[in-house]
Amino acid sequence: MSSLREVKDRIASVRSTLKITSAMKLVASSKLRKVQRTVESLRPYEEELGGILSSVLSAGASIAAPPVQEDRKARTVLLAFAGNSSMCGAFNANAVRKVHEFLANAGDDVEIWAFGRKMADALRKSGRPCAKDCSGIVAQPSFGAVAELARELQERYFSGEISEVHLVYNHFVSTGHQKVVSERWLPFEPERSKAGQAHDTDLYILEPGAGQLAESLLPQVLNLRLYAALLDSAASENAARMIAMQAATDNGEELLAELSLEYNKGRQYKITSEILDLAGAAQN
User: Fold this and answer.
1) Is 198 exposed, middle or buried (0-12, 13-18, 19+ CB in 10 A)?
2) Which end of the chain is more exposed for a tag (fewer CB within 10 A), N or C?
3) How far is CA 127 from the centre of its chain?
4) How far apart are CA 87 and CA 90, in angstroms?
5) 155: part of which helix (H) or strand (E)?
6) What is the pLDDT, as a whole number, of residue 52?
């Protein structure tokens, strides 16, 4: 009797857990679709604007370079993206591992901005506390908040306080595949993207001039790239959580089937024993 009660309690516990994992999967799926729609509407504009800027710079336009700091070495800033919560497979661990690889090659003079509590906690435990914790932006992605951070970084870069800004985040490839990437955000390098190849600056008259146009476009492109990285990381997190919760639900259903079979066998054995006891008592 005690054994059957224990199995029954385990069945109730598994069913309760299945409700949680199924709900988390639905929430992650809903958030993923929302972020994907935002990224799909943002990406063409970002690529087109980046292509125009790359074409203008490739045609000979230049952007004012930051001053050289002779008395001290300018610092590198690393923007590290992860999530605010767990239960999303290896999403956070992969990002943290990539950040540690970057720090191992970059040296000690790196200022880290953490986007996500899991990233901030992991770096703090490893003895590399973050200069800025931007976990709130991860919970509520906002272009305005990202633009403020981007403006601060650009001001520090063009004043010569920092020399480079790098991003480490999970790139959303598909629902079942997220890839951690490391890329340089500043200084900006022209890229020959599909959008950039379509712009031939010799066919246009640029007013007020190529240099002024490049300086006007640069902050917009950088803002969009940083916002796109944030959304990319958010999409990857929700996709990873959805897959993890689906796997947990499948495992829970398998365990529930095994426990139900064990419980039914126990009940059958108990009923059979009681029948035999009654039959034996009747014969006596």
Assistant:
1) exposed
2) C
3) 23
4) 9
5) helix 143-158
6) 85
Total Cβ atoms within 10 A of residue 153: 20
- Judged against a pLDDT cut of 80, whether residue 203 lies above it is answered with no
* 66, 117, 128, 213, 277 from 92: Cα distances, Å: 34, 10, 17, 39, 59
Strand partners, 177: 174
What predicted TM-score, i.e. pTM, was given to this entire model?
0.85
pLDDT digits (tens, 9 = 90+) for 75-85: 899 999 999 99
Return the axis-axis angle of helices 117-125 and 91-106, rounded to nearest 10°: 50
d(CA 61, CA 156): 22
Residue 201 CA to residue 220 CA, distance in Å, equals 19
Dihedral of CA atoms 15, 21, 23, 25 in degrees, nearest 10, equals -150
Give the count of alpha carbons within 13 A of 274, CB side only: 7
Model confidence pLDDT, tens digit, residues 253-274: 999 999 999 888 888 888 888 7
* Two structure tokens written together for 18: 């299945």
Give the contacts of 81 (CB within 8 A, at least 6 positions apart).
95, 115, 116, 119, 138, 167, 168, 169, 170, 229, 230, 233
pLDDT digits (tens, 9 = 90+) for 65-116: 666 555 456 789 999 999 999 899 999 999 999 999 999 988 778 999 999 9
| Strands (E) located in the chain | 75-81, 110-115, 132-133, 162-174, 177-186
